[in-house]
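Sample entry (209 residues):
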Amino acid sequence: MTDAIAAARLATSWLLWYPDEALESRMPEIREVCATLPGDAGARLREFLEAFDVWTWQERQRHYVDQFDMKRRTAPYLTFWTDGDTRNRGYAILRFKQAYLASGFDLGPEELPDHLSVVLEFAAVCNELTGNALLIENRVGIGLLREALDQAGSPYAMLVDAVLATLPPLTPEIRRRMADLARSGPPSESVGLDPFPIASDAAAVGGRR
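Predicted structure, serialized as C-alpha cells:
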C-alpha cells in the first residue's frame, strides 16, 4: 500500500464518523492531508469537503443522522447487504472482530467492527494485508452503499467513491452480485431470531455504541 492510499483511507475514516467536536478538532489536519492527495481518491475527498463546507455544523449533524442512523439502506455496516438480519451476519461481524484482535487493534465499545470507518482505520494504520482483504471481500457491500448514498443525494457518496478508488477495479462477477443484491435486498431471517443490530445494541457483538 502506498502512503497516499493509507492517508486517503484514514482521512475517509475520520470523515465517516459522526461530526462531533472530535471531528471538528481534526478538520485542519484532514484538510491539509486531502489537499495534497493524488488521484481519484484525493479528488473525491476534496469534492466532499467542498460540499461539507456549505453546511453549518448542526446541518452536518442532522444530515449524518438522517443518512446513517435513520435509513437502513444507507447504514455504513458492511455485512448488512450481504447478510442482513440473519445468523450469518453475527458470524460475519465476529470475523471482523477476530481479525482486529489478532492484529492487536483495540476496537473499543463505541462501534460495530464492520462499520466502514473502522475497517478503513484498521487497514490504514494497523494491518494493511488483512485490512485490504476485508475491504475487497466486502466490495459488493461498499458498492451498494455508494449507490444508495448517491440515490439519496448525499455527498457522503463521494467518500465511498474515495474508498473505491483505493480498491481493485470492479469485475464482472462483482457487478453481477451487486445487481442481484440490489434487486433482492439483504437477506432476512425473522423466525426464532432476534435480528443483529444496524446501529444499536452493539455491545452484544462487541461493537462500540
